[in-house]
Design brief:
10 helices, mainly alpha, 247 residues, Glycerol uptake facilitator protein
Length: 247
């Protein structure tokens, strides 16, 4: 594991706040659009999934564009990959993952409240099978490969659209509808609606997401000799320098 550069405390907490806000709005969209889809298209599950996936992909584009200049991982697996590749420290990773998870849970509660449900309604939707677990490995692997691959290509400005497009597609080509995010997975236990997941199904989902992330890190190291530099770029550790350049 590579040693990460030191970042000042103010920048770390600013990044953590961006991760909290982004994760909250992401999950509010995932859960809220699922609730809306069930109300608008009660007899058509395919249409419900289309509505849910389009809203999720669109909000990812918007959030990464808006918060990317600060921090826009919104995903503990992405943060762990950055840690393994030396872009963040252990302490920073812990702070960011805590912010992502707490923000995601807040987003789930907000979605419930916006649709006049109880703030917390524990999901009873079981998601447990070999196919679903494999789907989470594939979904998470693909997500990280897209993130690092787009940055490696030098087309950073297209990253929001690539991530949003990938997640929209992965809703459809994976049997699990592509959770691909431990923070989001945990938060979705708090809503017994379209997007929910029973708490008993969570550990296996997160384990498979971590497997997918580990495989993706291995693939990135094999494909890109400068993978550690890429990780620093993905983590946006030069935010402070860019801000000073515009002072």
């Amino acid at each position: 594991m590579t040693t990460a550069p030191t970042v000042d405390r103010h920048t770390v907490w600013r990044k953590a706040f961006a991760e909290f806000l982004g994760s909250a709005l992401l999950v509010a969209t995932v859960v809220g659009s699922g609730i809306a889809a069930q109300a608008l298209s009660p007899d058509d599950v395919g249409l419900q999934l289309l509505e849910n996936s389009l809203a999720t992909g669109a909000v990812l584009v918007a959030l990464i564009l808006a918060l990317g200049p600060v921090s826009a991982a919104f995903n503990p697996v992405v943060t762990l990959a950055e840690r393994v590749l030396g872009a963040v420290t252990n302490g920073e990773a812990a702070i960011f993952i805590s912010a992502q998870t707490s923000g995601a849970c807040v987003g789930s509660v907000l979605a419930n409240l916006m649709f006049d449900l109880d703030a917390v309604t524990i999901s009873t939707k079981e998601r447990s099978s070999g196919g679903l677990w494999l789907a989470e490995v594939v979904a998470t692997f693909g997500l990280l490969l897209v993130v690092f691959g787009v940055v490696r290509s030098g087309r950073d400005a297209l990253a929001p659209f690539a991530v949003g497009g990938y997640i929209t597609a992965a809703y459809w080509f994976t049997s699990s509808t592509s959770f691909a995010n431990p923070a989001v997975t945990i938060a979705r236990t708090l809503t017994d609606t379209f997007a929910g997941i029973d708490p008993t199904s969570v550990l296996a989902f997160i384990a498979m997401q971590l497997v997918g992330g580990a495989l993706a890190v291995g693939a990135v190291l094999a494909l890109y000799p400068n993978a550690r530099d890429l990780a620093a770029h993905v983590a946006d550790l030069n935010t402070t320098e860019r801000e000073h350049a515009h002072d």
